[in-house]
Amino acid sequence: MKILMLARNPNLYSHQRLVEAAEARGHEIDIYDTLRIYMNITSHRPEVRYQGKSLTGYDAIIPRIGASVTYYGAAVLRQFEMMGVWPLNESVAIVRSRDKLRSLQLLAREGIGLPVTAFAHDTRAVDDVLDIAGGEPVVIKLLEGTQGVGVVLADTRRSAKSVIEAFRGAKVNILVQEFIKEAGGADIRTFVVGGKVIAAMKRQGGEGEFRSNIHRGGSATTIKITPEERSTAIRAAKVMGLNVAGVDLLRANHGPVVMEVNSSPGLEGIEGATEIDVAGAIIDFMAANHGPAKTKTKGKG
Question: Half-sphere exposure of residue 109, counting CA atoms within 13 Å on the CB side?
Answer without folding.
Answer: 8
